[in-house]
């Protein structure tokens, strides 16, 4: 069925350390059989490496015994010790709060702080807006970046805080940054799973979930879209991908949904680690997005810029149900991506001095690309919402629409497209049609 690679990367059997009890990271040769086996047994798949064709999982001794009991040849070596916790230079919840407040104090004209909700333990979830008139709603396109749905993924807030620092410190210094900030409402949630991260620092360095009833819920399996629909999460409270008792049960999930519903971002990147992949909807096999031409094209562009592999979760990893990007795509018309930073060479807790700056610098190309892509092939504008509520998009001459876009409550719309020729039908109490419109860059249409 599969072959053990012969290396146990790490063991967490160190008394007195902040570690996952009785757990070890195990590396396998990557093939479909081992992926299916790990998923079928609901093992905690931690990362995948398509360059070296390896896959890793965090296993308890009992789970390791299950694997050893399979009717196949398994070889392994004695485990090496896993560091007790990530480097203390990675940020904790208190440092994140201090960081965003300091940025706002230094750049009050181009930033706005917003508490989008509170965690189970009462911590405030901060978002920061970066825009030239940050305190005003200028009816500009919004873009969202968020980090750390999963508590152990300590590199992700380094990327989100770098986005904040780079944009604010280079405003009116670099022309491209000034244009992005002047033309866009850029929102960043630097650390989302604050309670889980606190637990990761103080109790268990492999902790992934929030802290619901001490067993936790995987926030990124708790969104209502597709919740518990394709064996892409677990009903077992002890599993790392436990979905919760009901869709949207967690205050963190509710905070994200309410916030996204309010700001209506055109794009989103949710930063995770690790695997060096770019994931787009949908999470359940074999579903594909109806606007797949644009979604997959931009995903491929991100992958090329980062040298990461693009695809759906079910193709690259495993089925995922109740994930944030599926909910954002279906319910809020966002074009969303998960970017899994770092590889099996670095894991969840890369050496800070060796990998932090390299990872942050590499990933600038991804988030910058989405800001540039707002000026790529698209139809954007504003209409009277009393007269028009939806836009149907057709490939020129076709009778069936490829997309039906709901116009935003303020009358704006931002439809990201693949370059081509289209027909558009604006519909509501009135109707207005446009035919054979070539879309090769941003096209404004307001009436």
How would you characterize this protein structure?
This protein has 447 residues and is of the alpha/beta class. The protein has helices at 32-40, 61-68, 93-106, 156-169, 175-183, 194-202, 251-263, 292-306, 313-316, 324-332, 352-373, and strands at residues 4-11, 23-29, 44-49, 54-60, 111-118, 124-130, 142-147, 185-189, 267-273, 277-280, 309-312, 335-341, 378-382, 390-395, 403-406, 412-416, 420-427, 431-439, 442-444. It folds into three domains: 4-68; 93-373, Aminopeptidase (3-Layer(aba) Sandwich); 378-444, Carboxypeptidase-like, regulatory domain (Immunoglobulin-like, Sandwich), CATH 2.60.40. The chain contains eleven helices and 19 strands. The longest helix has 22 residues, at 352-373. The radius of gyration is 22 Å and the shape is globular.
């Amino acid at each position: 069925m599969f072959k053990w690679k012969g290396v146990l990367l790490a063991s967490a059997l160190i008394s007195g350390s902040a570690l996952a009890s009785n757990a070890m990271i195990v590396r396998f040769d990557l093939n479909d059989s081992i992926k299916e086996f790990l998923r079928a047994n609901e093992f905690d798949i931690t990362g995948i490496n398509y360059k070296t064709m390896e896959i890793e999982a965090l296993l308890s001794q009992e789970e390791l015994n299950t694997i050893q009991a399979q009717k196949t040849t398994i070889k392994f070596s004695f485990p090496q010790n896993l560091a007790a916790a990530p480097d203390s230079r990675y940020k904790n919840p208190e440092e994140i709060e201090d960081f965003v407040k300091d940025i706002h104090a230094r750049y009050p004209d181009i930033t706005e702080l917003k508490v989008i909700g509170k965690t189970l333990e009462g911590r405030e979830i901060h978002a920061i807006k970066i825009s030239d008139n940050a305190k005003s709603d200028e009816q500009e396109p919004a873009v969202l970046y968020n980090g750390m749905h999963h508590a152990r993924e300590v590199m992700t807030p380094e990327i989100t805080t770098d986005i904040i620092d780079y944009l604010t410190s280079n405003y009116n210094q670099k022309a491209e940054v000034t244009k992005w900030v002047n033309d866009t409402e850029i929102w960043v949630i630097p650390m989302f799973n604050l309670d889980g991260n606190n637990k990761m620092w103080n109790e268990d360095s492999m902790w992934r979930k929030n802290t619901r009833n001490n067993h936790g819920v995987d926030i990124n399996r708790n969104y209502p879209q597709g919740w518990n629909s394709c064996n892409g999460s677990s009903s077992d409270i002890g599993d790392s991908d436990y979905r919760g008792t009901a869709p949207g049960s967690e205050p963190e999930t509710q905070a994200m949904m309410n916030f996204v519903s309010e700001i209506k971002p055109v794009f989103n990147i949710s930063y995770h680690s690790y695997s060096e992949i770019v994931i787009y909807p949908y999470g359940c096999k074999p579903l594909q997005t109806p606007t797949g031409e644009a979604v997959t094209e931009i995903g491929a562009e991100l992958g090329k810029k980062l040298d990461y592999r693009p695809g759906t979760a079910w193709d690259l990893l495993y089925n995922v149900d109740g994930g944030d990007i599926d909910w954002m795509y279906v319910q809020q018309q966002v074009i969303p991506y998960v970017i899994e930073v770092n590889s099996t060479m670095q894991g969840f807790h890369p050496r800070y001095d060796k990998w932090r700056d390299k990872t942050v610098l590499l990933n600038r190309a991804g988030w910058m690309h989405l800001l540039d892509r707002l000026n790529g092939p698209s139809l954007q504008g504003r209409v009277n919402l009393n007269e028009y509520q939806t836009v149907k998009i057709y490939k020129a001459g076709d009778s069936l629409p490829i997309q039906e876009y709901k116009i935003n409550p303020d009358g704006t719309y931002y439809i990201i497209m693949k370059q081509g020729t289209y027909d558009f039908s604006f519909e509501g109490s009135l109707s207005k049609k446009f035919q054979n419109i070539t879309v090769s860059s941003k096209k404004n249409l307001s009436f």
